[in-house]
Write a structure and sequence with these properties.
Blueprint: H1 9-14, H2 16-22, H3 27-34, E1 47-53, H4 62-67, E2 76-82, H5 87-93, E3 98-103, H6 111-125, E4 130-134, H7 138-142, E5 146-148, H8 151-156, H9 176-188, E6 193-198, H10 200-212, E7 219-224, E8 233-234, E9 240-242, H11 248-269, E10 273-278, H12 285-294, E11 298-299, H13 311-321, H14 333-349, E12 355-360, H15 368-388, H16 392-395, H17 399-415, H18 424-431, H19 435-442, H20 458-475, E13 483-484, H21 485-494, H22 499-506, E14 515-516, H23 525-534, H24 546-555, E15 561-566, H25 568-571, H26 577-595, E16 601-606, E17 616-621, E18 626-631, E19 634-639, H27 649-662, H28 689-699
Parallel strand pairs: 3-4, 3-6, 6-7, 7-16, 10-12, 10-15, 11-12
Antiparallel strand pairs: 1-2, 2-17, 4-5, 8-9, 13-14, 16-17, 18-19
Bound molecules: 1,6-di-O-phosphono-beta-D-fructofuranose.
The site of 1,6-di-O-phosphono-beta-D-fructofuranose has 15 residues, from loops.
Length: about 700
């Protein structure tokens, strides 16, 4: 035994080297906390004022005018810097205020900088102004749970991801009671203004709160947040006022980085297909950006599927029965799985039994047959809750209970013709789908009545269908791994066989291609032997020559997959420089809107696709952006979500390069390596590719 005295754990923990290595303060963290983003030109002056922009017009929904009369006539406002305004202006601008801020919905990188920008601007205007952060989302407003945001706290979170400082939640202030409680909170904190940082539903909430508290003089300002990138605002003439919500770019880059690593891995050990679902509740903006960032082999874009027409099916129906087959309109899950299979089979034919597929989380929304189920089930659940004043999911906790309830509805439809929401056909079709998918479709809706796509294992459903169809293709001899000609020759020659003798017997394209495909009739060792016997190469009693058997075995595809979900990870990433700068300036914009008396406006920055010097802070009126949509089976006034425009330049580019990125030909893949998110260094000023491409449309003569 050694007589060396062992060091106590206390001594180890007190060792400076151990303390340094286990500290949670990294160099990047220090840099992030100290970085103050640049300010848009308008904020370089001591004061800012707002100019109503009458050139920016909106098509107003009559219902919005009816429900939000106090803010419906708001104009878009441009923010300009002012050096020395009149004393009365200075007084108003710099008065002591109490401002509340809340995060609402899913986290998005950059949220802390909205607070930092607001805090810096407000304290600069008047150091006595107090900023309160509501805890855990809108519930914090309803229940008056808030903390005062002081300098040290704000500094600790500058340029950092997440909403950790005050957390977030998905509650909605959607009842009279909650509205009254929220008003009481604002009153008790003597708030001059309330800032709601959220997505489409939260900005909808902001508009209603602005209207409700108009008379009380509490201003309400919204901030466009969501990694989904689906808050995009244009005026009536199509001019872009807000090109994208904050957080989108960071999440897309984080996803792209991880997916690119999979591209590198899969093209190295060449045995896996990686199926990557990426977040984005409905719209496929994130998937589109990821496609451009990574050039993954296949990227599905939900919006691209809606207008799909199966021409072959239509032709066949006309030929056979002289009728139109309406089922040929719109993409089905089965057809989509076949599109994926086609890519897999074509890559396999050139020896690439691997690849990366990107599936947007919300793809089901664009698949007609599934969308119908989602709408019907939304209605059934909402009606049950309303009629019984109960919760469907509490009353029917298990899948079997829910299915039993649906069965009862189907029975009801047979007895009462006026009951059409769930009929026997719906019930039969629904019972045909796997239990985990049924469970997903029946799952609890969120507080806004939205279907929670992130909880459904869409990729598993598609993969199941893909595997089934590939089995069929394998059995009919269509799905094979192409064998490189030089490898084939070497293998046979090494075994003392003549490749040119066996070539035409084994392959269907021996005379033409670099990658050789075993004939479709050879689908097993048995059929291989039979072919060799038929061709007189061997007798019944002889074995297949080893090199030939080896080549055959190499041609048999085995689909090995790895499933990934990219969502929460990217949502929690520290923001890119772009998002740091964007959100800090959104915070400054918020204060400018408050200091100039606005309410019912959303803070935004124009020209995000251009260099920073061209960024223009503005206020966009929320009420004119709202329209009626079905929510919880009722029509509700909401802010419109923006989905991928299939006529946009970015989508057209992705469509045009699809074949190149599939790379179903000999040679290298076309993968692109996006930079990892670094806080500084070259490239860190980059902006989303979709943003830059889409702006080309507007800048072309
Ligand atoms: P927001 O619209 O609130 O920003 O949330 C976006 C999102 O991240 C979606 O991409 C995703 O579908 C959803 O939130 C997940 O919700 P949850 O956080 O409740 O699981």
């Amino acid at each position: 035994m050694s007589d060396k005295k062992s060091i106590s754990i206390e001594d180890i923990l007190n060792n400076p080297e151990v303390q340094k290595s286990t500290s949670n303060i990294s160099q990047e963290l220090i840099k992030r906390r100290h970085f103050i983003p640049p300010k848009c030109d308008a904020f370089s002056k001591p004061y800012t004022e707002l100019r109503d922009n009458d050139d920016i017009k909106f098509v107003v929904d009559i219902e919005s005018a009816n429900q939000l009369p106090s803010i419906i006539n708001n104009k878009a406002q441009t923010i300009v810097g002012v050096d020395s305004p009149e004393e009365s202006f200075k007084e108003r601008y710099s008065k002591k205020r109490n401002i509340g801020i809340v995060f609402s919905g899913g986290p998005a990188p950059g949220g802390h900088n909205v607070i930092a920008g607001l805090y810096d601007a407000a304290k600069k205007a008047n150091p006595e102004t107090r900023i309160f952060g509501f805890l855990l989302g809108p519930d914090g407003i309803i229940e008056n749970e808030a903390i005062e945001l002081i300098g040290d706290l704000v500094d600790a979170y500058r340029n950092l991801g997440g909403f950790t400082m005050i957390k977030t939640g998905r509650a909605k202030i959607d009842t009279k009671e909650k509205m009254t409680l929220s008003k009481e909170t604002c009153k008790s904190l003597e708030l001059d203004a309330l800032v709601i940082v959220g997505g489409d539903d939260s900005n909808t909430n902001a508009a209603f709160l602005a209207h409700e508290m108009f008379e009380d003089g509490v201003q309400v300002i919204g901030v466009p947040k969501t990694i989904d990138g689906d808050i995009q605002v244009r005026d009536a003439e199509g001019n872009v006022l807000c090109a994208m919500s904050f957080g989108f770019y960071t999440a897309a880059r984080a996803f792209a980085n991880a997916i690119n690593n999979l591209c590198t891995d899969s093209s190295s050990d060449v045995k896996y297909w990686h199926i990557c679902k990426v977040m984005g509740r409905v719209a496929s903006h994130l998937a589109l950006e990821v496609a451009l960032q990574t050039h993954a082999n296949m990227t599905l874009i939900g919006e691209d599927l809606t207008d799909y027409i199966d021409e072959k099916r239509i032709e066949e129906a006309i030929k056979k029965e002289g009728t139109i087959d309406y089922n040929a309109y719109g993409m089905t899950l089965r057809h989509l799985s076949r599109v994926i299979c086609d890519g897999i089979v074509r890559r396999a034919a050139v020896g690439k039994n691997y690849g990366v597929i990107v599936i947007p989380e919300g793809v089901l929304e664009f698949i007609n047959e599934i969308q119908i189920f989602i709408i019907k089930l939304n209605t059934i659940i909402a009606e049950y809750n309303e009629t019984h004043d109960a919760d469907f999911h509490t009353d029917f906790p298990a899948l079997d209970d829910k299915l039993e309830y649906l069965r009862r509805l189907a029975k009801l439809s047979r007895e009462d013709a006026s009951f059409t929401i769930w009929n026997t056909r719906d019930d039969d079709l629904f019972n045909d789908i796997p239990a985990f998918f049924q469970e997903g479709l029946l799952m609890e809706r969120d507080s806004h009545g939205n279907f929670q796509f992130s909880q459904v294992e869409t990729e598993k459903v598609l993969l199941g269908l893909v595997k089934d169809y590939l089995d069929i293709l394998q059995e009919n001899g269509t799905y094979k791994i192409g064998i490189e000609r030089s490898y084939y020759r070497k293998t046979l020659e090494k075994g003392g066989l003549d490749p040119d003798y066996f070539g035409p017997i084994l392959f269907k394209n021996y005379d033409d291609d670099d990658f050789l495909l075993i004939k479709s009739s050879i689908i097993s060792v048995k059929t291989l032997k039979q072919t060799l016997i038929n061709e007189g190469v061997i007798s019944e009693k002889q074995d297949i020559p080893d090199p030939v058997k080896k080549i055959y075995q190499k041609s048999v595809p085995k689909l090995k997959t790895q499933i990934h979900f990219y969502g929460y990870d990217g949502r929690g990433n520290d923001p890119t420089r772009f998002d740091c700068n964007y959100t800090y300036n959104l915070g400054l914009t918020v204060f400018s809107l408050i200091a100039n008396g606005s309410t019912g406006q959303m803070a935004a920055i124009r020209n995000l696709e251009k260099d920073f010097v061209k960024w223009e802070p503005i206020g966009i009126p929320i009420a004119p952006l709202m329209h009626l949509e079905e929510r919880k089976s009722k029509l509700a006034l909401v802010l419109e979500k923006s989905i991928v425009d299939v006529n946009s330049v970015s989508f057209k580019v992705v469509k045009a390069l699809r074949e190149k990125w599939l790379a179903a030909e000999p040679g290298d893949d076309d993968y692109r390596r996006p930079d990892p998110i670094r806080f500084d260094g070259e490239g860190e000023e980059d902006r989303p590719i979709t943003l830059v491409l889409n702006a080309l449309d507007r800048s072309s003569p």
